[in-house]
Every structure is written in structure tokens, then in C-alpha cells.
Amino acid sequence: MPDIPLRFVYVRLLQASRELYYAGFLRGCIVMLLGGLSLYLFGFSQLLVRTSGIGVGMLVLIVFLINNQRGDQKFLLLTGFKPWKIKATEYVVFTLPFVVTGLLFGSFAALIILPAVVIISLLPGRERSVSGSNYLSDRIPLKLFEWRAGSRVNKISFTVCYFGALLFAPLPYVSLVFIWLFTSLVSSFYYENESRELLFANFSTPKQFLNEKLGAQFRFGTFVLIIPIGVHLLFKSHEWIPALVVFVLSVINLLVFVVSKYAVWKPGATGNTNEITFSLSSVSIVVPFLVPIPLFYLIWNYFRAVKNLNAYRNVNA
Amino acid sequence: MHTEMLMLNKIAAGYNGEVVLEDITASFSENGIHGLIGLNGSGKTTLMRVIYGLHKVYSGSVKFRNSGTNGQVAFLETENYFYHSITGPEYLSLLNNHKGFDFSPWMRLFNLPAKGFIEEYSSGMKKKLALIGVVCSGKPLLLLDEPFNGLDMESVRILTQVLKLLRAKGKTILITSHILSSMTEVCDTLTIIRNGRVTKSFDFVDAVEIEEQVYRELDNQIQQQIETLTIV
User: Fold this and answer.
1) Is B119 on the interface with A (CB under 8 A)?
2) Closest Cα of chain A to B204: distance in Å?
3) With an 8 Å Cβ cutoff, is B99 touching chain A?
4) pLDDT digit string (tens) for B82-136?
5) Taking the CB of residue A180, how many other CB atoms lie within 10 A of it?
6) In terms of pTM, does the model score above 0.90?
7) Which of B195, B145, B198, B200 has its CA nearest to residue B20?
8) Torsion-angle region of B146 (φ positive above 0: left; ψ -120 to 50: alpha; else: beta)
9) How many beta-carbon pairs under 8 angstroms link A with B?
10) HSE on the CB side for A35, CA within 13 Å?
């Protein structure tokens, strides 16, 4: 690879392929994923043709949120390159298929994507606050510490997605897209694992622990999501079917995040071994034939989580 | 009168078939502070992990009050994990399932900030926070692996006093440390582990005498290796 920024793109692709490899059974799903991706691209291009502004805006927003979540600024500085050059290369390479697809379908608005993502790359990534105080986050029950911590780290994205869903409620489908983005953002809250002490503080059996955790997640997730869905339906009551689908799948996904986290839980580990699971679950909301995937993950990972957590109990008992 | 609270009976354990602990037999009385010392890799941490139930034994058994250790042990590991973007008090609130434990005075005693995320704590502060977490569990048996590591002088003194208080409140404490003076000041017994075996145990008689014996024992351990060194 001739240049550091392009090498980063290459490394990202390697990371993705490595993740697919370690995902085990998922190798069998790759073909399905590629098919889904093609359909998604096609659907996106159609969206560009009919409502170019919204399609381009959503893609730019996604890149903005991804950039906002990045915490690798210091690492990028180690390369000796300006971080924005590396990020701009990544964003341009990965949004290019969407731009090309848009152009092929006659949507010249897609050209806006490239300068927009370059501008986004100039913005700093995630900056952790030094203060523990944050009005919204502090209102989240401490039991759901993943939400509390995640909403602090992703303060801007969290606020933009949630209040975007409320503010754009009068527009067709936009609230639903914001809810989708919001749920995808919440998946990132489940990448870091808590300490053993934290996990076992209120633990008797893996099933009891998981059921309580899922119950809390279900109650809170339903409460959080039903507000923007309700507001949206006040303005667009005829969109009740897609709204219901997004709501149900979002709640299922929130449960998938919990069981998937504990299916691979290791004390204090930080990683993204669930990235593919979370991505597929998130994408399933907009790609209809992927809908069974989160349901499958919910059941399969529940049993994996029970087995995994059992392994961390007293092995000599 | 002290009774034998923790009994280790012929414990053998290791990693990937390599034996780290070999035939460890020892007993520790209740309401006491018991030190484990040994060189790096001697098996101290593995022994603690076995007692806590994190590491499977090849053979042997761990008995606590004549039964298993389930739910009876709290473990302060050498490396402490928490959770990102939560504050110290939030972390302790999540752990604090033992009613009646007020962690605020502990936070003040250890000079831990009530605001600010844990990842912004120094390593010593994290150690202290983890220690409060162990104490607030209310478990009768506390395993402390290198609790003095990374602590400043004042905190070492505080910890020493806290350990004595815990003993007075009926806790049984098993502790490892590289700082022998801290151990001799606070421990009732010292056990030397060498190559996965208990080579010597001391009851508390006199700190100076114990230190001399421990150093002599350690010197014996390393003497043969010292003699093989080449200096140019």
C-alpha cells in the first residue's frame, strides 16, 4: 500500500474479514449479507432518486455519528499524518459505492456526500468529558449502567439521534430513521464488559441474572422508544405499520445487545467481537429478509450467554 | 481461640498441563491476616484464584468453614477492572448489595473524588476503589493480591490500619505483597510459597525475626541462580 491513509482502509477491511472469520457460523451467512448489502444499495439509490436530500442527509449523518464516536485520534497522530487525512480517505472510500450507485440512478445530489464527509473528517472524534455530571445520563437508572456510560461518551450522537426523532416527527419516515440510528448507537454501549465484581455483585444464577437484565432493558427500551414513536404517529398516523415494525425490531435489538454481550463476556474486556452481530441486527430493520436474524441471535446468544457466564462461576464448587 | 477457617488440602493446579501449584496443604485461622510471600511466578496469585474459584484444580480441595467457598469470598485482584464513564460512587452503588454499608466515609478516608470518571483515577486510586468494593461485599474471607501496589505512603498506612480494623471485625484476610515490611507489620502468619509448594510457615512472633527468616529463605532460593551468573 503506497500511502498511510490507504493502509488504514486496508486495515479496516482486514479487521472486517478477521471478524467474519472468528464469527464462526456467520461465514455461512456471508452470501446472505452480500445479497442484503446489494439490495440495501439498490434501495438507497431509489431513495436518492425520489428523495435525494433526505437520502444524502441520512448518509452524511451516519458518517458524522461514526466520526463522533471515534476515539482513535491519538493513535492516528502516531502515524505522523494529519488524522483528518486518514479519516477522510476512509470515509471517501467507504461512501464511494453509495455515490456511484446514486449517480448511476441519476441522482447528482449524491455528489454532495464526498465534500461533506471530508468536512466531517476535520471534526475531532470522541472526547470524553472530565465531569461525571450530565443531566440526561444522570436520569438513566444506574442499573442500566451501559446506557448511562454510553450516553455520556456519545453525548452528542445520543442527543442528536433521540431529539432528531422527536423534532422531525412531522416529516415522513425521518423519525423512524433517527430511531434506527439511535438503536444502532445504543449497540455501541455494549462493547465494553464490566468487571467480575460488578457482574457477580447481584448474581445467583446466569439465567436469573440474564432474565433480570433483559427485563430491565425491555422496560427501559420500551419507555425510551415509545415516546418518539408516539409523537411521530401523532403527525403520521398512516405510517403505523412501519412505525410498529421499527419499534418492535428496535426493542428486540436492544435485547440482542444484552445477550450478545454476555455470550462473549470476559471480565473487563474491551472489544468489538459483537460488531457483526450488532451490525446485522441493526441492518435487519431496513432489510426485510434479515428480520429473522435478531430473533435468531436473541435465542442462540441467550444460551451461549448462560454457558459463558457459568464458566466464570466457582469452577471448583 | 482461633479455629481453622480455610483449609487447603493437597491442591494441584496449573495452566495447559504445566503444574504451577503442587500439593499445597495449608490452613488459616479465622479473624486473622495471613500473608503469602514468594518470588514472581511462585504461584501466589494462582492459589488465590483457586481459592476464589476462578481456576480449576487438578486435584485437592478448598474448604471454608468445612464447606465450599461459594459466595463467601471477595477477591482484590492485582489488575482491577471497572467500567468506563461511571464515577466511583456509582461503581460502589452498583456493587453495594450489603445493606448498611456506607461507602462515603471510605471515599473520604482514601481521598477519592466523588465526581470524575474512574478512568481518570490514578492507578493507586483505582486500587483503593477496588479495595472499598471488596470491603463493601460483606464477605467473611477477603483475598487481597498485592493491595499495597501503587499506593502512596499515606495510603499504605491507611490500608494497614484498615486491615487491622477488618480483622477486629471478624474478617479473615489472605494477602500477598512484595513489600515485606507491610506484611510483617500486619500479618499474623506468613507462608512462603516456592515453586508451587509451601516451604515454610511462620506464626507471628517478632517482626524482625520473621523478616530475617524470610530473607534467609529467599536468599537460599536465589543463591544457586546467582552463582551461575556471568559478569563481564
Assistant:
1) yes
2) 31
3) no
4) 888 899 999 999 886 666 788 889 999 999 998 888 988 998 999 999 999 999 8
5) 22
6) no
7) B195
8) left
9) 91
10) 8
